[in-house]
Amino acid sequence: MQPAIKSLKSLAVTLGALLLTSSLVQAATEIEFWTNQTQSDRMKIIETLASTFEALNNDIKIKVVPVDENEMATQMAAAAAAGSLPNVIEAGSELLLAFGEEGIVDIESNGKMLQKIGKKRFFSGALNMLQAPNGKDFYGVPMHGWIQGIWYRKDWFAERGLAAPDTWENIEKAARELTDKSKNQYGILIGTKPEGYTEQVFTHFALSNGARQFNAKGELTFNSPQMLETLKYYQTLAQFNPPGPQTWRARDYYLQGKMGMFFYSTYIMDDLALAEVAKGSLTSEHFEGLSGADFDADLVKNTGFVPVITNKTAASYGVLQGLAALKSTPAETTATEKFVEYLYDPYAYITFLHMAPGGMNPMLADIPDHPNYLKDPKGIFKTYGTDAIKTIINGFENIQTFTVVDGKAFPESGQIFAKQIIPRMVYSVVFEGVSPEQAIARAEMEMQDLIGR
Questions:
Q1: Which of 330, 345, 363, 392 is 20 to 30 A from 386, alpha carbon to alpha carbon?
Q2: DSSP-assigned letter for residue 310
Q3: Using CA atoms, how far apart are residues 401 and 304, in angstroms rounded to an integer?
């Protein structure tokens, strides 16, 4: 009977171990991470980072959920109504400010993470974009961002003796001269569809004309002579756009040699430099007017970039993506803080940024000096050169949007962004025959109703 007793004892030990393991698994804290990196290749990288974190923290599980940036506000509203908010999100600064004002952001947790990562390491312009109205709290942690500008055919401009598109006058003149609709060639791409890209482009022009949503006192000043002038100018430029409501996708015209200028962020850098990345824009799938084209290896050297536009004032524009902890249980909050801090470890952080070299720029000022940063897997940074990359990144020290006025953030601007009031205004003027005066007055009324003043 002795062997049987030993066998039973062994079985009991094994069962005990299994029960202990099971209890540990059950005790693991699961947190949900919403990211707007919805592309499959980027999701794989994020999931790999999450798996690595789980291996280092076996008491925490990460559920990664992709959410399109244009759907983030509506999905968040639905999650809030259902009582099932995610624990941490990646989103644009305007949305994070809006969520902060709604009271779903864990300000204390975000403050802890900033201090742990090192608040002084962040670009001050990036921090300003996520600052709460009280001037001391933050609605998120700056993660990555991009600078917007006009990418243009330097060779076409040289052939026609055109000046660089850095002023309203130069931009309009080039757009006219480079448009030849009989050849399906267009001078410029600006957003006209009621979505985020349109607001980004319009905002850049508005800032360059001294137009703002709010003044330094927080008063709504959208319906101003400067904003009206911007809208009329935008309406003029839309004549030189490809036909129909347009968004960023019409960059295909540029990559196929059918466009002179287009507004885009630094995300376009790899498309211009690498054939395998550009191929999605070299087909006839997206536009009836395009038959497709071979990759132009000379396009990257024939392309210029203008990040600063001037009319009444010089203005740059960029978008910041941040991470924000939302209110949840103490255990989930602790797990969230650990996960976010891990994502800022240099190796994890650079891996994340290298998903889109040039498009995802670091918000930590010391990262460009890290030996791994300029060695992106695709060799994009090598193509453009170290100086160009650092010049782009340093622009985040003084990044501009409607959200921040004289160093003070106005979260109401994020609420306006979430409702797409500005791009709907643009669409109504370009495609529905509404006069600029009527459209801008209606937009301001919608803003007043939204923010209660």
A1: 345
A2: E
A3: 23
Q: What is the DSSP letter of 305?
A: E
408 - beta bridge partners? 405
CATH classification (class only), 30-146+319-398: alpha beta
* DSSP code of residue 327: S
pLDDT tens digits, residue range 324-382?
999 999 999 999 999 999 999 999 999 999 999 888 999 999 998 898 998 999 888 88
Is the fold of 30-146+319-398 the same as that of 148-317+413-451?
yes
- pLDDT, mean of residues 215-224: 91
Which uninterrupted H or E stretch holds 290? none
Task: Report domain extents, the chain.
Answer: 30-146+319-398, 148-317+413-451
Return the pLDDT at 11.
Answer: 41
Residue ranges with strand state E in 37-108: 60-66, 88-92
Q: Which helix (H) or strand (E) holds 225?
A: helix 225-237
pTM: predicted TM-score of the whole model, two decimal places: 0.75
What is the distance of C-alpha 429 from the center of its chain?
A: 26
According to CATH, the topology of domain 148-317+413-451 is D-Maltodextrin-Binding Protein; domain 2 (3.40.190)
- CA distance linking residue 196 with residue 72, whole number of Å: 12
Residue 102's alpha-carbon distances to 79, 98, 243, in angstroms, are 13, 6, 39
pLDDT tens digits, one per residue of 107-138:
999 999 999 999 999 998 889 889 998 889 99
